[in-house]
């Protein structure tokens, strides 16, 4: 029923656009007959509005994947390099929160593991909004930062890496069946900031899915129950993504394609020294406005990647 409702809404959008075009053609005919300057300006304005609607709907055709219309869970992991990479992971977390804010999406940090001196070792971010996963799947991969280190007394140039995982949110528990017999649930004391209560009680939860070996932990909430619920949500999302990747790999083998590992060649480089540039290595799209990108201006990169994937998932 959810899928049927979405298809009806999509069809109605195209029907409305079709009617707008018909009305516009009639208005063009009238303006040509009457040679009214004010009417011509009205036609031009309406053409711009219709063109914007066409571009918007045309782009939504790129978001036709099985899970593209769902909310997303982002998992960020700092690479090797200590404080530098941990600071970079936190910069990426901020970037995605700003991107979501630009689109009016709701964000919630599900869990974070703080770094020793600065930044984060890892974090999980939930982003709720229309086609959140469809857009954000363009961000899955290794992100590379080159800059003068603020943590190096010699201000030497450093290269840091962070991995961004993007998971579609599981909408119903039945969609991914998880038996309690397949779970090993452990509790431990939370680490990092959070007050005395987090330090004195074993509120943090670690869940191991025995058949797959997947491990998920959560310590962001004071309640052990809340942490367990969040960990289960993330576990279901990881299991769903694992199955999606397995099916994609099978299709790739049949087509003779090579699938690269998650850790490997970076998908995007962010260079802040000796020059300023952000470049996506999959599409070749680049910009010198690094400040805007790190402030969440990612749409050009996402759209270019999605367009490059047309026909590859079939």
What is the topology?
Elements: H1 2-34, H2 37-60, E1 72-78, H3 83-103, E2 106-114, E3 120-128, H4 132-136, E4 141-148, E5 157-168, E6 183-188, H5 196-200, E7 204-209, E8 214-218, H6 224-255, E9 268-271, E10 277-280, E11 286-287, H7 290-294, H8 299-308
Parallel strand pairs: 4-9
Antiparallel strand pairs: 1-3, 1-5, 2-3, 4-5, 6-7, 7-8, 9-10, 10-11
What's the CATH topology label of the largest domain?
A: Alpha-Beta Plaits
Total beta strand runs:
11
Rg over CA atoms: 23 Å
Structural class: alpha+beta
Count of discrete structural domains: 3
Q: Examine the secondary-structure arrangement and name the CATH architecture of the largest domain.
A: 2-Layer Sandwich
Largest sheet: 8 strands, mixed
The run of helices and strands is HHEHEEHEEEHEEHEEEHH
Low-confidence stretches: 193-200, 257-262
Considering DSSP H and I runs of 4 or more, what fraction of the residues is helical? Answer: 40-55%
What would the principal axes of the Cα set say about the shape? globular
* CATH classification, class level of the largest domain: Alpha Beta
Strand order of the largest sheet: 2-3-1-5-4-9-10-11
Average pLDDT for all residues: 86
Can I get a quick summary?
The protein has 314 residues and is α+β, with helices and mostly antiparallel strands.
Question: Can you characterise this structure?
Answer:
There is one protein chain. The protein is of the alpha+beta class and 314 residues long. It folds into three domains: 2-60; 72-169 and 277-308, Alpha-Beta Plaits, CATH 3.30.70.1660; 178-254, 2-Layer Sandwich (Double Stranded RNA Binding Domain), CATH 3.30.160.20. Helix content is 43%, strand content 23%. The chain contains eight helices and eleven strands. The strands form two sheets. The chain has an eight-stranded mixed β-sheet. Strand 2 (106-114) and strand 3 form a beta hairpin. The longest helix has 33 residues, at 2-34. The two termini are 24 Å apart.
């Amino acid at each position: 029923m959810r899928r049927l409702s979405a298809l009806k809404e999509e069809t109605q959008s195209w029907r409305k656009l079709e009617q707008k075009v018909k009305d516009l053609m009639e208005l063009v005919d009238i303006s040509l007959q009457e040679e009214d300057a004010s009417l011509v300006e009205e036609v031009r304005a309406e053409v711009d509005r219709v063109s914007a609607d066409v571009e918007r709907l045309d782009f939504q055709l790129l978001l036709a994947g099985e899970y593209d219309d769902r909310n997303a869970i982002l998992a960020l992991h700092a690479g090797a390099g200590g404080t530098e990479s941990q600071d970079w992971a936190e910069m990426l977390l901020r970037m995605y929160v700003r991107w979501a804010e630009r689109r009016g999406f709701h964000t919630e940090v599900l869990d974070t593991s703080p770094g020793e001196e600065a930044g984060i070792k890892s974090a999980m971010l939930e982003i709720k909004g229309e086609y959140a996963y469809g857009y954000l799947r363009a961000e899955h991969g290794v992100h590379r930062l080159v800059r003068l280190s603020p943590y190096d007394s010699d201000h030497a140039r450093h290269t840091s890496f962070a991995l961004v995982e993007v998971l579609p949110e599981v909408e119903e528990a039945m969609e991914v069946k998880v038996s309690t017999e397949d779970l090993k649930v452990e509790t431990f004391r939370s680490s990092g900031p959070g007050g005395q209560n987090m330090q004195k009680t074993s509120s943090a939860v670690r869940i191991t899915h025995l058949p797959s070996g997947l491990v998920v932990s959560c310590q962001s909430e004071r309640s052990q129950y809340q942490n367990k619920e969040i960990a289960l949500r993330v576990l279901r999302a990881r299991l769903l993504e694992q199955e999606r990747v397995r099916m994609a790999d099978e299709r790739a083998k049949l087509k003779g394609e090579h699938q690269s590992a998650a850790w490997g060649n970076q998908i995007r480089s962010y260079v802040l020294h000796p020059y300023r540039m952000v470049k996506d290595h999959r599409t070749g799209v680049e910009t010198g406005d690094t400040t805007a990108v790190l402030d969440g201006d990612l749409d050009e990169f996402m759209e270019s990647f999605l367009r490059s994937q047309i026909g590859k998932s079939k």
